[in-house]
Write a structure and sequence with these properties.
heterodimer; A: mainly alpha; 4 helices; B: mainly alpha; about 0% strand; globular; CbtB_put (chain A); transmembrane (chain A); CbtB-domain containing protein (chain A)
Chain lengths: ~70, ~260
Amino acid sequence: MAQTAAPATVTPAITPISLKAIAPWAVFFGVVMLILLYFVGAEQGATALISGEGVHEWVHDGRHLLGFPCH
Amino acid sequence: MNSISVRALLVRGMLAGLVAGALALAVAYFLGESRVDAAIALEEAHSHSHDHGAGEELVSRGMQATGGLATGVLVFGVAVGGIAALVFCYALGRLGRFGPRATAALIAGAALLTVYIVPFLKYPANPPAVGNPDTIGRRTALFFLMVALSVLLAVAAVILGRRLAPRLGNWNATIAAAAGYVLVIGLAYAFLPSFNEVGKDFPASLLWEFRLATLAVQVTLWTTFGLVFGYLTERLLVPGPDVATATDGGTKRPATVAG
């Protein structure tokens, strides 16, 4: 009993999550997260999807202090 | 063992990212804002000009320093937390024998280094008043290129290290992979164009303090993320000692309990 219990508690082997299970989440949420980062870090700086300067001005301080090139 | 839910990990990653963003926000507000204000004051003193600064502002300085800063840092925290959680889903169980907590710490450390510090050493953060608006396109493109290069090379280094491990042993394989990463990053530093757009009369101490503040923001963010996400995933994936005995003894104990 002690022999079977010891290895199981000391090194619980972790089965990797299969790529098939990760892929849909990674594609959808990866894209969503990158879009969020784009709006925080670069929109209305070098490139602009929305005209004007509202987004740039609103996240201005965050952009500087997070290290993105701002203007 | 039933399969680990990607959704559960993603939710925890974004939550940990939000907590990390909140702490980073406090650092940004207390260490960073005074430097941003000082730089803007210099900018306005120098350009008594038309477009920027003077006149009506789209967003007031007060809002930029509070609501705007909070939006930027918190959204950044949630987004990088989500991406780090997806990386974690892949790395867990594939990086040697590291458990969830150690894997989370490794990913957070690697992210701080490859996503922020390595690009920062070539293209450091600039306060307002530093940087020529005419080069913003090139500077932005090169900054993101440097981030992408750094992350992809780190992934390549990890793959290389795993390949070399059977021949060289874990320790030497890690050193070889890290040396390869440093070498190629060094070449990128040497050959990519640099920008020196700091005005001659911009105070060096202010620039230094601003850049240190941005570094403090990122160190806070990734350290908090690594610790909080590690705690949450360890609790999710590794049953605690009492839980372990409860499920372990599940086959045996009922007999004694029932009997």
